[in-house]
Amino acid sequence: MREILTEIKEKALSNIKEVMNLDELEQMRIKFLGKKGELTLVLRDMGKLSPEERPIVGQMANEIRNEIEIEISTIRDMFRNEIKKAKMEKEKIDITVSTNKKSLGHRHPLLSTIEELEDLFISMGFSVVNGPEIETVENNFNALNSPENHPSRDLSDTFYITEDILLRTQTSPVQIRAMKEMGAPLRIVSAGRTFRFDDVDDTHSPMFHQLEGLVVDENITMANLIHTIDIFIKELFGKDMETRFRPHHFPFTEPSGEVDVTCFKCMGKGCDACNGTGWSMELLGCGMVHPKVLENCGIDPEKYSGFAFGMGIDRITMVKYGINDIRLLFENDNRFLKQF
Amino acid sequence: MLLPIKWLKDYVDLNEEPKVLADGLTLSGSHVESIISLNKGIEKVIVGKILKIEKHPDADKLLICNVDIGEKQLQIVTGATNLKINDYIPVAIVGAKLPNDISIDKTNFRGVDSYGMLCSLKELGYSDSVIPKEMRDGIFILDKEYPLGTDIAQVLQLNDEVIEFEITPNRPDCLSVIGMARETAATFNKELKEPEIKIEKEVEDISNYIDSVEVKSSLCNRYYTRVVKDVEIKESPLWLQIRLMEAGVRPINNIVDITNFVMLEYGEPLHAFDLDKINGRKVIIREADNEEKIITIDEIKRNLDSSNLIIADEKSPIAIAGVMGGFDTEVTRETKIVLLEGANFNGKSVRLTSKKFGLRTEASTRFEKGIDPNLCKTAVDRVCQLIELIDAGTIVKGNIDVYKDVKEEKEIVLRPNKVNSLLGIELSIEDMIKYLEGLGLKSKLKDEVINVTIPTFRLDLEREVDLIEEIGRLYGFHNIPSKPLVGVLTRGEKPYGRIIEDKAKFILQGLGLNEVMTYSFISPKVYDKIKVSDNSPLKKYIKLINPLGEDYSVMRTTLIPNMLDLLSRNYNRGVEICHVYEIGNIFVPKELPVKELPEEKKILSLGMYGKVDFYDLKEVVDKVFERLGIKDVEYIREEDNPTFHPGRTARLVIGDDVIGIIGEIHMDVTENYDIKERVYIGQLDFNKIVDLTNLNFKYKPLPKYPSMLRDIAVVIEKDILAGEMEKVIWNNGKGLIENIELFDIYTGDQIPEGMKSVAYSITYRSHERTLKDEEVNEIQQSIIKDLEDKFKAKLRS
């Protein structure tokens, strides 16, 4: 009987090796291991064996069954893998095709610049506040220490609604509102629309945007202002950007300064765009809040000091994205908007 | 302000490179806009002398000159007409280079060889606006004999740069060479050498020529005059002309040139009258009468009014004060005796007058900003000194000086600790005093404070903080070490409304809409374009007093016109699909005419055309509301809004609150905007959206029990709104309906005219148990019955 079992084993293993597909393999399984398979049939005769031989042959038969089963399953896996492979081979597609079925909207480059800047200042402890586009002469000029005869107040510079009401020419009136409403200490930033009597051309627009920051607290110094501006410019334009503080004049700050940054075009080497100076001019204006302005808002300049800064966002956006005509920002051509 | 460096060197010893000079001055507060090298690149241009002039045989307009350049004679063809024998002129010889990359070669003009070019001032790099009128079209004729062959750069002192400054309005004293010299001296720690004013010879007395000066207006604080006789009017010497041209001023004649020179030098505008042409022996400063007229030296007749300050003789106006002199009393070739004026006029008055006449002159820009009245005398006396120096006339003794409000030096107390605490530095008192003294501010330490004497030319220094700025800028803002902010405020916040706005924008972006931005002011004509009725509240808009034009003249009360405008622009530029939004303000006046600030309301404006219908727009709105947690929005048919399609427009209502309107734009309106496609626009009150937003999303357990899906299809009258039917379905649901989905609306075959088939798929689920068929069937039956009762619906089988 042992010989018969060994014979079946060898026959089964060699037959299995020759099958061509899963069906044939199944037939082999039935042929040897099925209910009426060769191995099964042999085992039926186990009864004829002596009680001593039975467990030995039984164990041998089980081992042979296992061996055949393992072989079948190995071959089965091989066939299945081949089938999957062939299927996937057939399913090959052109992976360079774009169908453009999904669409995601685009943020306006200027408004997203404002948002980025606001978020940056929020991380520096500034709170965002907003003010109205239509303002009083009091908030826009008087309280900001603007001289009564200053040309910026003329009808040829500022849009008026009445003698006392105008379209704000700067975001600075928000400073006045904030100081009057919240008092000191204060750390705010405010961005928004501003208006000046400028005809439309590639660098001018009667409506433009500013962002303004203000800090009022005890012991605020110009050194703090310089630090704040420095961080902001490096965040916005990158670590390689150098800044240059130079004195300037604004009625609402004293001392006042303007900040130049490395020329964007030549990175400081000097080129036509920067008149050979290596500096891009007048990125922002800043200074220590004028004591008169603090007084106008009911804040004691002997106890508190502060700094303020303001910048034109339209220009910053244009520099950042390489936009050469401010009109593009307001035309809203879809093909323009989709680039950002 | 143009500052020739060589002029600056008259008052400060300098050997710094122009770039170093410019950087230093920029960092101490005088912002350099550019460094101009007027005559850059001139090579091989030398002095020559005309020996012979002949006509070109074959060209009427050309001349052949023989020019002596010392070592040899050259034949040069020219088209100029102002030459004569023995003139000394600049000659660009073969191989010469001129500004703007021009180089000179041997040429041939109609058969005659030409070995070089005779140069005009323009060819030497001067701008048309400063070249003397008589030299504008011709060769530059030198004022006297120079050694032949001398480099012209040497003769004209060309090797020098001009710095252009942006002078801030608080520093009118810097609109002068001496003012800038003072800044330069302070910046580079050098000494300022002001001219010593001295007149060698004075004759007769001013009273022989003029009786009095009467100042009849408070707009003139000082009027100082002197008289110069025996003047001989001619061109100025070359050095004077070159100075003026480099500083951007056109030479006219010796007397006028000197007054301009001194104006540039001291910043005090001056004027010279031809005294013989003044009627009577009085000079009167007064406001003009309405109806009065004057012809100014630009030969334009100007109508004066009582807001204009004028200088007059006993008969008529002879100058517009601080703006421009009169033509009749102008200094001309025939002038023999001049009256010099150094005056101090009110800045505002000069500004308004110069504006009225559209005349911004070197004088008016200086008066506008304010001038030290003490300069009147200094400047006029300096003119006399220079007239004497170039031998242009004889100075008459004495002056007439009407000076009302005498400007005197004042004192400001400066606390050194305040300087350091505001700038954030640690500067010694000695250094502070050094900086102040460098600027000509006498400073004395007494009782731990510095008493600073403010000279009268520093009109801008009013209080302590102004002096802190002076110290700060000379110390250098760039030298102040940067120090981080400290304090109690370390956490920044964004207002809630802005957070919601950002969120809404994020959702809209996800829905594929692009963000746009339009002007706050619009044309009043657009209200007709969108067919707004005359009594609509939208027409209660705020007007600007001084708009840029009608297109930008009223503050918008709706964002629809801006939206249509930009959609139209895109459409007409061939953009096929345009889906956009804007969040912007409208301006609602509390009353008209406006007395107080209007309400500024934020509107979410949506606009779409191209591959969209009403339902796409509605879905955008629904998604925004869903993600902002806004519930129970009802869409109510809006049939009588003239801007919109009567059958495709909805008013959005939550409770009693109208949130906005969405719909298809009326065909008349799209025609007005040249759009040949259906356009969908929504206008939502964003402030209300912010109020209604509820981001307090709470987790609900995921369903444990299975759902059941049932369909209902009914035939119903066409005008019944889906929203109405859905209300009925929900109401019958006994709280077991999880979702209703409209999956088909059908009209046509098999459906009677005026009816439609509507099919819903309803999801039932309980959170407590598995639903039984019977209870769901019961609900289905009650829904069908209710639909039948309310809308005469018929179940479709």
UniProtKB/TrEMBL annotation, chain A:
Binds 2 magnesium ions per tetramer. This is Phenylalanine--tRNA ligase alpha subunit. Tetramer of two alpha and two beta subunits. GO terms for molecular function: phenylalanine-tRNA ligase activity. The gene is pheS. Mg(2+) binds at E254. Belongs to the class-II aminoacyl-tRNA synthetase family. Phe-tRNA synthetase alpha subunit type 1 subfamily. Keywords: Aminoacyl-tRNA synthetase, ATP-binding, Cytoplasm, Ligase, Magnesium, Metal-binding, Nucleotide-binding, Protein biosynthesis. CDD domains: PheRS_alpha_core (cd00496). It catalyses: tRNA(Phe) + L-phenylalanine + ATP = L-phenylalanyl-tRNA(Phe) + AMP + diphosphate + H(+). PROSITE patterns: AA_TRNA_LIGASE_II. Residues 117-331 form the Aminoacyl-transfer RNA synthetases class-II family profile domain. Its EC number is 6.1.1.20. It is found in: Cytoplasm. Its cofactor is Mg(2+).
From TrEMBL, chain B:
The lineage of its organism: Bacteria, Bacillati, Bacillota, Tissierellia, Tissierellales. It is found in: Cytoplasm. Mg(2+) binds at D460, D466, E469, E470. Tetramer of two alpha and two beta subunits. Binds 2 magnesium ions per tetramer. This is Phenylalanine--tRNA ligase beta subunit. Its EC number is 6.1.1.20. One of its GO terms (molecular function) is phenylalanine-tRNA ligase activity. It comes from Tissierella simiarum. Residues 407-482 form the B5 domain.
